[in-house]
């Protein structure tokens, strides 16, 4: 029976894609840069590439924050201060939070079954603010944020930190739930725990492991573990 739940945040409990889009348009408008859907689509792709590079240890968090804008502006020949835009984008993010429907109820159910831990690569201030704004705090035992841990998912160092900082941790009792095959699934493997892919947008239909497209399906899978 599983009673230690390790949950990713962005695109698992929170609609990160929606928040990313809103913040992008808000920030560029504040900085006087014209933005359209094509520009956002390219930003989204660059941002995703850089976060995967971060997971592989190929870029620092501070460089990522600026490079996603400097690359975009260079490609699109936009004259703008990438560092100023990056700072504003990071500053705006704590106030932009969209929990998936049923996320809080999902956490309530998990907390009734055991202990809930957040495991995320997101920024510390952003994620802690989002946990509070989303109403998740009463159901979360602890939060592990890579910026505070000093190691990023999916490194062995991050996985080991989580395991050694959870009281009475047993691999057989734990399950990792997240949306990323390159981050969450790999980190679950490093931690030697079961993994459930949370895929609300159906992006990974070919995945051969445990996959949940909504919270009721995730609970049903947990009931079989």
Q: What would your notes on this structure say?
A:
The chain is of the alpha/beta class and 225 residues long. The chain folds into 2 domains: 138 residues, Rossmann fold (3-Layer(aba) Sandwich), CATH 3.40.50; 80 residues, Orthogonal Bundle (DNA polymerase, domain 1), CATH 1.10.150. It has 10 helices and 6 strands, in the order E-H-H-H-H-H-E-H-E-H-H-E-H-E-E-H. It has a 6-stranded parallel beta sheet, sandwiched between helices. It is globular and about 55 Å long. The chain starts with a strand and ends with a helix. The mean pLDDT is 95.
List the helices and strands and how they pair.
Layout: E1 4-7, H1 16-30, H2 37-55, H3 61-75, H4 82-92, H5 103-113, E2 115-120, H6 124-133, E3 142-145, H7 146-149, H8 156-164, E4 174-178, H9 184-191, E5 194-198, E6 211-212, H10 215-224
Parallel strand pairs: 1-2, 1-4, 2-3, 4-5, 5-6
Helix pairs in contact: 1-4, 2-3, 3-4, 8-9
